[in-house]
Amino acid sequence: METQRYRVGDAVISCVVESENPGIPTRFFFPEADDDDVKRHAWTIPEFADERGRIVMRVQAFVVELGGRVVVVDPCVGNGKKRALPFWNEQTWPFLERFAAAGFAPDRVDVVVHTHLHADHVGWDTRLAGDVWVPTFARARHLYTARELDWAKSTDGPGNAGVYEDSIAPIFAAGLADLVEEEADLGGGLRLEPTPGHTPGHVSLWVESRGERALLTGDFVHHPVQCAEPHWAEVGDEDADRARATRRRLFERAAATRALVLGTHFASRPGGRIRADGDVWRFEPEG
C-alpha cells in the first residue's frame, strides 16, 4: 500500500493505514441516517461511499514530521488485543510493516499524540513481548489529557473494555506518559484544541508551518458526509449535542482559514479542504 503524504509548509504528514472497510451500512455508524441519505450527497461517491450509499471507513495513524520531530497521532487498534468488537478482536494487521515501508522506525518516534482514548486510537502504543504488553514507541513521550485519562479509567463499555489495562497502563509503568492541557501548545507548530463531545476530553491537533495549517480531526467527525449533515451523531458520541456543536465550530473555522483537514477515519483521500455549501459544508479531497 503506497503511503499517502501531505505537505503543510515544512511539515510532512503521512498516513499509515491499519484497515479500510467498504460497504458498511450507514446506520451502523449513524443511527439516524440510512444509505439513501448518503446517496443524496453525490460528491461522496465513489471515494467515501458506494453507489448504494454504503459508507467506507478507514482506521489509520498520521505521522507528522516537523522541526526534526517525528510525531505519531492516534495509533489505531493494534494486534492481539482482546476486544468485544469482532472486527477489532485479536487482529494481525501488517501495520508495523507499513510503518516501516513509509520510512519510519518505532524507536525514532519522539511523541505520540492521542486525540482521545478509544480502542482504535491507542492500540499500537503497546505490543506483546511474550505475554507482556510493552511500549511500541519506546523512546517517545505519550501525551494524555487529564479529563480523557479519567474517562478511560472509568469506562468499561464493550467498545473500550481492556483498553486501559493493555494499551495505557503499560505506558505509565514505563515512565513514558505526560499529562498535558487540552489547549496545550506542543511547540514547533503543533497545538491541541479541545473538541469535546465524542468523548469528554477529546482534542484535535493543529499543525502550522510557514503560514499554512492543517487540522487532524480525531473523531469529532467520522465521515465526510457529516460536513453536509453535521447533526448526524455517530454511535459512539458520548454527548451528541456537544459533538454537533464541535463539528459546526471546527467546520466553520476550517472553511474560513482554508486549512487542510485530515480526517482520521476518512478513506481513499483523507486530506482535503472544507468549503461552505449554503448552511452546511462540503469536503473536497486533495492528493
Distance between the termini: 15 Å
> What proportion strand?
25-35%
Q: Report the CATH superfamily.
A: Ribonuclease Z/Hydroxyacylglutathione hydrolase-like
Broad shape: globular
What would the average pLDDT be, to the nearest integer?
97
CATH topology: Metallo-beta-lactamase, Chain A
* Number of β-strand runs: 16
Instruction: Tell me the strand order in the biggest sheet.
Output: 1-2-3-4-5-8-9
Oligomeric grouping of the chains: single chain
Low-pLDDT residue spans:
none
Biggest sheet, open or closed, and with what strands and sense? Answer: 7 strands, mixed
CATH class: Alpha Beta
Q: What's the CATH architecture name?
A: 4-Layer Sandwich
Number of structural domains: 1
